[in-house]
């Protein structure tokens, strides 16, 4: 094994990160981590077809400073043409802006496959697939699903290393026969947080009965179960309040439900907050958080590592969650989370148990912050890159 320090290795490398973009994501965190550590860094961002802004873009860094940036046209194209545009722009920008690349990181199997094609023509030395989400049945359309798994299998055969946000993704691929000689090494690279950036608010300064939710407001997030649990909770703990940070298609339904249950004074809908720092400043004020995912067998959350849970923990928030994401049992083991059934009675009962116990609540808040430290992005990416290069 090489004894050359990681930072010295990185300082001689030319790196490309290619990712599909909605708002935030781990590829953008990797960009932040690497921008001052490599010889050069090219970040390529392609919009998801449902993103408001449709332009692809690139950013080039040299010596820790942005050397150049640019973007493509942003027309409303059919999905197929969106992906064709991704191919053309990725090849063009890598060849023109990066030259010969030492490491190409693709944040999904389609973009990593483009890295493999660039490797075949001599433009890339090593390719990493960074799997953010994975599902055996990714698309309802069988043709699209077959294409998804074709790209995934090619990446498993031709990438040097595959990063997965959870160990369940590795197991799912192995169950499809992708293990042993001829397939890439899979390592777990969990989602993280910038630990030092997040305020460490003492328990005594937190709002004693404030419960927090952050995220995309969709039916599958299960926030409606929490709202239905609130009437029973408020009867016993009148000072309980729920703060909802985020927007989404299901938000109007939740507001109607809150009004119908006469909870408008107990729930604050703050909407979408663009600044992540501002979100964190709100989250630290609470003492408990919720992540009551709907237990859908087809949900990709069963294989994923939800980023909001790491944010909750780093903000000193124990998590009340359903047993859907792989991290659920770890939170219970580290005494910073409780698992509930997907119904209002169970949610109310467990929230009551935690919120009415000062000693337990304080301990769980402190444990949450301690456990989150192991997910600092600096540590997460350092470990991943040590195994990769």
Concise structural overview:
The protein is α/β, with parallel strands linked by helices. Helix content is 41%, strand content 20%. The longest helix has 20 residues, at 79-98.
What does this structure look like?
This protein is of the alpha/beta class and 389 residues long. It folds into 2 domains: 6-189, Glycogen Phosphorylase B (Rossmann fold); 196-374, Rossmann fold (3-Layer(aba) Sandwich), CATH 3.40.50. Helix content is 41%, strand content 20%. It has helices at residues 6-11, 26-34, 79-98, 109-120, 142-158, 167-175, 223-236, 251-260, 276-283, 307-314, 328-333, 344-355, 358-372, 377-388; strands at 14-21, 40-47, 57-62, 65-71, 101-106, 124-131, 161-164, 185-188, 210-214, 241-245, 267-271, 288-291, 319-322, 337-340.
Question: Which CATH architecture of the largest domain would you pick?
Answer: 3-Layer(aba) Sandwich
Structural class: alpha/beta
CATH topology group of the largest domain: Rossmann fold
- Proportion of strand residues: 15-25%
Are there runs of 5+ residues with pLDDT below 50, and where?
none
Judging from the principal axes of the Cα atoms, what is the shape? globular
